[in-house]
Specification:
It is a single chain. With about 450 residues, the protein is of the alpha/beta class. Helix content is about 30%, strand content about 20%. The protein folds into two domains: about 40-215, Flavin prenyltransferase-like (Rossmann fold, 3-Layer(aba) Sandwich); about 230-325 and about 340-440, CoaB-like (Rossmann fold, 3-Layer(aba) Sandwich), CATH 3.40.50. It has helices spanning about 60-65, 85-95, 105-110, 110-120, 130-135, 145-150, 165, 170-180, 205-215, 255-265, 295-305, 350-355, 370-380, 420-445; strands at about 45-50, 70-75, 120-125, 155-160, 185, 190, 200, 230-235, 240-245, 245-250, 270-275, 290, 310-315, 320-325, 340-345, 360-365, 385-390, 400-410, 410-420. Strands 12-11-8-13-16-17-18-19 form an eight-stranded mixed sheet, with helices on both faces. Strand 1 (about 45-50), helix 1 (about 60-65) and strand 2 form a beta-alpha-beta unit. The structure holds cytidine-5'-triphosphate (CTP). Cytidine-5'-triphosphate binds near residues 295, 314, 318, 346 and 364.
């Protein structure tokens, strides 16, 4: 049997229209337009929890995996117990937690080799430097590492550790070795760490881990998902405008919102193209990503792929200005003062919104005041179909895991209260899809020829 979990009775569970709450991305859409999404339901997942502070997020991860219909068998290392209890993980997973390779009672119920065969996926989150080292060496001193060797299922790890540890050559060598052995590595993300420092080493958020390992699949006999056959192009992240070969002007965008939208659009069945500035977020499964640096490169890559795009979402924080000249060699500090001449960067969103019969154009507006007025002005000035506006400032918007937004279109608006960027992205994709259909319907009606009625 294939180990990918797509086979036979494992694909029977479809998301039900009314029972699944927020898992149903398209609740509220009229029945005639609704379609069912089927995720990798019924998948057997071994969730390995090793001993890092990020282990406190694993009960949430288990819940999210189970929400998607997966059976989750938690396997803890000894040190994981320091950060999260067996009782909690047993309660949320609904299965006794396995901790010991030599537990005769547990082995009698399902031996470790059987358990390794049972799994469709082995996910280790958080993965510490210690467990990565053991895995890279092929060592199997405990149950979790033994399972990693004994399974034929894909192994995915979400590392989490102090950023200096993550950058250590020994850890990087182990990361490379694991990647060469076929282990998929999610993150880590850059951000504030439990130790009070900032850098790469934060475990990817549970929502993003789930999105990365559980891409939706469509099962025969169910309607196609709502955005099936549609192409969505999303710009995300910051741009970098070079001053010289080693310096640039940029901003604090993390790309999280754009990537969350890409993941939600993909889950809704769309072909998704991400044109992304430099970020440290993992590209969601099934999404095509084109990496760029400057606003000019983002403009060129967007226009290269815009033909046939149905929905364009400009989530990138594109530089409005770039240095008029970028020095070919590193600028030396000779003068006591220095000024830089800046010129306007191309407006990607406005240029796409100008295309005749172009895509449904969605922009973002990040403001520090007068949110509604400024956003509505941008909607009109750039001739957009919709604008998503949020307040930015200290701990708001940029580089945060949560966001609250106001959405405006010509004859309507809607508020979305503070929530995780992935939950918000699902809601936004649903609204964008509704408005897109509305525009399509209106356009079809205007295009119908007038029929003269004679007596
Ligand atoms: N945008 C773009 N290309 C640019 C600048 C912005 O595509 N060169 C897009 C952004 O992705 C976002 C929206 O336009 O969707 C933001 O509009 P903009 O007017 O540029 O916002 P601000 O830069 O915040 O403008 P202002 O400083 O005037 O408030």
């Amino acid at each position: 049997m294939s180990k990918c979990g797509y086979q036979g009775d494992k694909t029977q569970v479809a998301l039900q229209d009314t029972k699944q709450g927020r898992n149903d991305l398209f609740a509220g859409i009229p029945c005639r337009l609704r379609a069912k999404l089927v995720f990798m339901a019924g998948q057997n997942i071994i969730l390995g929890v090793s001993g890092g502070i990020a282990a406190y997020k694993t009960p949430e991860l288990v819940r999210r995996l189970r929400d998607r219909g997966a059976a989750v068998q938690v396997v803890m290392t000894r040190s994981a117990n320091e950060f999260v209890t067996e009782t909690t993980l047993q309660a949320v997973s609904g299965m006794p937690v396995r901790t010991n390779l030599w537990d005769p009672q547990a082995e009698a119920a399902m031996g470790h080799i059987e358990l390794a065969r049972w799994a469709d996926l082995v996910l280790i989150a958080p993965a510490t430097a210690e467990i990565m080292a053991r895995m890279a060496a092929g060592a199997a001193p405990d149950l979790l590492t033994t399972l990693c060797l004994a399974t034929e299922a894909p192994v995915v790890i979400a590392p989490a550790m102090n950023h200096v540890m993550w950058s250590h050559p020994a850890v990087q060598e182990n990361r490379q070795k694991l990647a060469d052995h076929g282990v998929r590595i999610l993150g880590p993300e850059i951000g504030d760490q439990a130790c009070g420092e900032t850098g790469p080493g934060r475990m990817m958020e549970p929502d993003d881990i789930v999105a990365a390992v559980m891409a939706p699949i469509v099962v025969a006999n169910v309607e196609p998902p709502p955005l099936a056959g549609k192409t969505v192009l999303i710009t995300a992240g910051p741009t970098r405008e070079a001053l010289d070969p080693v310096r640039f002007i940029s901003n604090r965008s993390s790309g999280k919102m754009g990537y969350a939208l890409a993941s939600a659009a993909r889950q809704a069945g769309a072909e998704v193209i991400l044109v992304s500035g430099p970020v440290s977020v993992t590209v969601p499964d099934g999404v095509k990503c084109i990496n760029v640096e400057s606003a000019q490169q983002m403009f060129a890559a967007t226009h290269e792929h815009i033909e046939g795009v149905d929905i364009f979402i400009a989530a990138a924080a594109v530089a409005d200005y770039r240095p008029a000249n970028s020095a070919e060699q590193k600028i030396k500090k000779t003068a006591s003062e220095m000024s830089v001449e800046l010129v306007r960067a191309p407006d990607i969103l406005a240029s796409v919104a100008k295309i005749n019969n172009g895509p449904f154009a969605v922009g973002f507006a990040a403001e520090t005041e007068n949110l509604r007025d400024y956003a509505r002005t941008k909607l009109d000035k750039k001739n957009l179909d919709m604008i998503i506006a949020n307040l930015v400032g200290e701990n708001l918007g940029f580089d945060a895991d949560e966001n609250a937004v106001e959405v405006y279109w010509r004859d309507g608006e809607q508020s979305f209260p503070m929530t995780t960027k992935s939950a918000l992205a699902e809601d936004l994709i649903r609204l964008i899809f509704e408005r897109y259909l509305e525009k399509l319907t209106a356009a079809t009606q205007t295009a119908l020829p007038a029929i003269a009625i004679r007596d």
